[in-house]
Amino acid sequence: MFFVMMVCVGCEWQLKPKNRDAGDVQISIERYDRVENLYLTTGDYSALQQMKMTYPMQTRTLIEDMLRLGKVNAPDINVKFLHFFEDSTLQHMLGDVQQQYSDISDLEAALSDAFGRLKEKLPTLEIPLVYTQIGSFDQSIVVGNGTLGISLDKYLGEDYPFYQKHYSVEQRRMMVRDMIVPDCLAFYLLSVYPLPQRLAHDQAERDRHMGRIQWIVNEVMGRPVFSNVFVDSVSRMMKPNSQLTIDQLLTK
After folding, report:
1. pLDDT tens readout for residues 96-123
2. Helices 203-221 and 229-237 meet at what angle, rounded to 10?
3. CB-hemisphere CA count at 13 Å for 180?
4. Which residues contact 79 (CB under 8 A, 6 or more apart)?
């Protein structure tokens, strides 16, 4: 199953310092976006083969679930895929992604630290395989089957020309490099702790559940990334004398 996307005051939810022991979580991001970009800009058949052979799950998710172009093994799917990205806006975006994200070592370090801190509170948490991809300005994070995909086209900065025409000011504030790690944590936690099906159609329940997840992300990040009434409500509940664990908070 895939999930596709978008100040704690007075809390004593203690986290260890960032200089933890060796053997901590180390995340190396798979640059699927580079192979994808090579095929979409040059039509290089070897790049297409690498997409399908080395990254079969990522390619299927991109083509079938995100772009909805058809089945990945359809006879004409390669032509459809290329044709889809012939749009001048998307071609320009491909270059912008490669320029802005030529070096992602900062993201690898930040993700490693954040997931390491989260795993301290959830020792049984499985660390996902993380990869970068390029979509079509639609979904930000894709989670499923032990993987976490980051759509770099959704994090090109709040002043990016395409964003200014199609997204609100509030939305654009979240479409920046600094939001990648918090979004990864939030959507991964949501995949591990989905709202029970019986409550899934209740908007208030969805908001409260997401508020709990966002509060946890704020704690892991050490800064108020998400700020809303639902996060504030969790902050008031998680007072110094609270004995609730993360697992209990997300399953109560």
Report:
1. 999 999 999 999 999 999 999 999 989 9
2. 70
3. 27
4. none
